[in-house]
Structures are given as C-alpha cells and as structure tokens.
Specification:
By secondary structure, this protein is α+β, with helices and mostly antiparallel strands. The protein is built from 7 helices and 11 strands. The structure holds adenosine-5'-triphosphate (ATP) and magnesium ion (MG).
C-alpha cells in the first residue's frame, strides 16, 4: 500500500510554501514518508530563515513596500501625481460606481455602519478627484494612489481580505485610450520587472476591461472612457485607468504559492513564516 503525507505534515509543508507537487508524493511505508517529511521540512525552514535574514541584513523593507517606493518614483517621473484619499468610504460613493445591493461586489464589502465601509477599491475616490482636478489643472490630468483595500473573500491562495492597490488614471491625453491603458500597464510591469500579457475580460463594474496576466493569475484590471459611469462624476473627456494588486505583483515576481505570505500579517513577514 502506498502512503501520502499526513494532513498535519501537508499543512506544515504548505505553511512553509512547499509547491503543490507534495500532493502527488507517495511512499512505501511510514518510515520513508516521515524521513521525507523531515528533510523537506528542514529545507523549507532553512529557506524561510534565509528570507528573514535577508530582510534584516539586506533589504530592510518588505518586498511589497519596496516595490511601492519604486513604482511611486517611476509614476512621478512619468508625470503622475500621487494622491491620498480616506480608507473609509460612503455607500454613496460605491453607488456611483454602480455597486448597490444587487451587485456581486456588495456582498464583499466590510461595513462599519449603515453608510460607511472600508473601501474595496480606489476607483471611486480617483473618479471624484478627476472630476474636481480637471476644472483647475490643465489637461492631461494624471493621478495615482497606493493604498489598502478590503474585501470579504472566500477564495484561497490569491485573495487577501486586506490588500494593497495601486490605481493610476490619466484623463484627456489621447483619443486612443486603449493604447494609453496598455502603455501605463507596461510602465508598471517593466518597473516591477515582470513579463506579462493582456487579456480581454468582462468586469462586473466596468463591462469590458483589459486584464494584466502573469501565467493564469490576474495582476491588474484596466478600463477606459468615455464610459457610462462618467456622468456620475462630472467627467466628459477620454480616460484610461488601471488598478494593480501589489501583493499579486510580488507573488508573481518571487514565485510564491500563497498570497498570504506577502500580505499584512503576524504569521508571515515579507514572505517568511515566523514560527520557524
Ligand atoms: P479577482 O478576479 O482575482 O478576484 P478582481 O477582478 O475582483 O480580482 P479588481 O477589482 O479587478 O479585482 O482589482 C484590481 C486588482 O487588485 C486585481 O487585479 C488584483 O491584482 C488585486 N486584487 C483584487 N482583489 C484582491 C484580493 N482580495 N487580494 C489581493 N489582491 C486583490
Ligand atoms: Mg479584475
């Protein structure tokens, strides 16, 4: 009879970021299995310790935070102005994005009260600012925000309930907003140093969107205007916008199997499990 790792062994190895391949491993007897577990465990513990060592001795900042700084510099250089908006959001702002009770995203929103939630996205605030700034700033208006977003998620290894979004948007530069969207996404992906491809997608908020994909993982979603939602925000010009998940970017760059390693956490730090 062939044996697989016990559930506890599997759990431990997955915590340490073993690849999915351990699922398929079989052994002739318990001794062989336990020996293999101990070896794998030792290797992975070592890897996690090295990562913590690297944080202390070399990088001194978690990879997500370092990437954030790199991207802010690159976006500033490309003429995008950083903005900072509140983390709490009114139901009215969501409503203007078409997110009301019947919308699938509604169920994922963390409510703080009847009319206030933790923002599930940055787009409503950026939309609002675009409408305001376009009245005082010359065209094109280019802004971006990097900040925490919150969604109740039931899905596994690629979703956090608290994650970092980078959303950049440009208005009034070019009639070919699709081309601008792709150039903007390319700037971010080049800065992060990650190969990618575009994929057409149907979004619950925007209708047709362009996704940035690495293997089969969505890293970003972009949309263009003129768009039917624009009237809610006093916007008439053409625009392009794209929102990236920074933890997804690091996951792709470093080849991590689970996004929890790089999210805000007391169990992991910068990709390393703390109980090693
Ligand atoms: P998915 O289909 O993967 O759930 P989404 O299409 O709902 O993502 P968007 O609303 O397009 O997500 O958000 C833009 C980006 O933010 C995504 O491409 C992804 O990189 C990131 N993102 C969204 N939800 C999460 C989450 N729960 N945890 C981590 N990153 C997320
Ligand atoms: Mg998307």
């Amino acid at each position: 009879m062939k044996l697989a790792f016990t559930v506890t062994q599997q759990q431990r190895l997955i915590e340490l970021d073993a690849s999915g391949d351990i699922d398929g491993l079989v052994f002739n007897n318990e001794q062989e299995r336990d020996l293999s577990f101990r070896e794998l465990n030792r290797e992975l513990v070592q890897k996690n310790k090295q990562r913590l060592h690297r944080l202390r001795e070399e990088t001194m900042r978690p990879a997500v935070r370092e990437l954030e700084s790199l991207l802010i510099q690159a976006l500033n250089k490309a003429g995008f102005v950083e903005v900072a908006t509140p983390t709490t959001m009114s139901a009215g702002m969501l409503g203007k994005m078409g997110i009301t009770r019947k919308h699938p995203l509604w169920e994922q929103v963390y409510w703080l009260g009847k009319n206030t939630c933790l923002r599930p996205m940055l787009a409503p605030n950026l939309y609002y600012l675009l409408g305001r700034l376009s009245k005082t700033w010359p065209s094109p208006v280019r802004i971006f925000e990097v900040g925490q977003c919150f969604r109740k998620e039931s899905k596994g290894a690629r979703h956090l309930s608290e994650f970092t979004m980078l959303n950049m948007v440009e208005m009034g530069n070019s009639a070919d907003s699709q081309k601008r969207l792709e150039e903007m996404a390319d700037l971010v992906m080049k800065t992060a140093g990650i190969d990618y491809r575009f994929e057409g997608e149907n979004s619950e908020v925007y209708g047709n969107t362009t996704d940035v994909m690495v293997d089969d993982v969505e890293i970003a979603s972009g949309a263009t205007g003129p768009h039917p939602l624009d009237v809610n925000w006093d916007i008439a010009d053409s625009w392009a916008g794209v929102g990236f998940g920074l933890e997804r970017l690091i996951m792709a760059k470093e080849g991590f199997n689970n996004i929890r390693r790089v999210g805000r956490s007391l169990i992991y730090l910068d990709g390393a499990r703390l109980n090693v």
